[in-house]
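Justification of resources, computational component.

The compute hours requested in this renewal are based largely on the per-chain cost of generating structure records like the one below. Each record pairs the submitted sequence with a full structure-token output. That output is archived, and it is also reused by downstream analysis tasks.
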Amino acid sequence: MNIIFYHPFFDAQLWLTGMKTRLPQANIRQWQRGDNQPADYALVWNPPHEMLAKRQQLKGLFALGAGVDAILDHERRHPGTLPAGVPLVRLEDTGMALQMQEYAVSSVLRYFRRMDEYQLQQEQKLWLPLPPHQHDNFVVGIMGAGVLGKSVAQKLAGFGFNVRCWSRTPKHIDGIESYAGGAQLGDFLKGTQLLINLLPNTPETVGILNGSLFSQLNKRAYVINLARGVHLLERDLLAAMSEGQVAAATLDVFAEEPLPSMHPFWTHPRVTITPHIAAITLPEVAMDQVAENIKLIEAGKQPQGLVDVARGY
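The structure output for this chain reads:
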């Protein structure tokens, strides 16, 4: 069994050693340009076109993250990057769900308890108690009901929040009000006070966080984007905040990363920025999952996290 590995910034030796420990029978190597030697499996993140082109003999292609948009973007720009018929597998959870829960809960509670506003008041040396938000009218809407969206929804519901989810296709989450498809998007947005985006990045979801969507939220709503920067039309968010339709935003992802130093988000008093750290891949847990999935494929079984390439997730 031959496995090739490529990641632009992960510690390659950590992965080579870790995977060898889990799959002693495998020959594992870091892919280098010009390497056209046979491979049964590829472990990648944002791989170069030439790494995967013409590798129809692969039994499995593993994306080292929850999203596969980088690979599918390559395929759209350079057809053949994704070898025809080769199963594409993404990581499921691997510790990311807990991290996303932590990020989402801390951000939601910050807005619910108005800590962001008290921080601004502190800078002005202003002592002014604010009317507290109430759970009854502080509806949290989550766009995306996959592994991460479901996890965040259930955790927030445990804090007593009225949580609802919207997804492209119908999903059922115990205790959570669910909406699906374009026909129900307006109903989902109506009455939402805080919006969390955890959608997959597909051609249909690019630019979905726009002025039209913001206008359907409650007045002075909050926006938290934890999915992909391309989901958000940044100018529309700035306009919605200027108009008072959106009160504040927490952004972990951006159309251009790192965020350019002159970008207006840096200095906007109602925008909170983090450098794409909401949920990162944990190598040891991820390697466990990849190794188990390879064993499933070798046994003729379907791996966990198999991607529907047509849908993009």
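The mean pLDDT is 95. The chain has ten helices and twelve strands.
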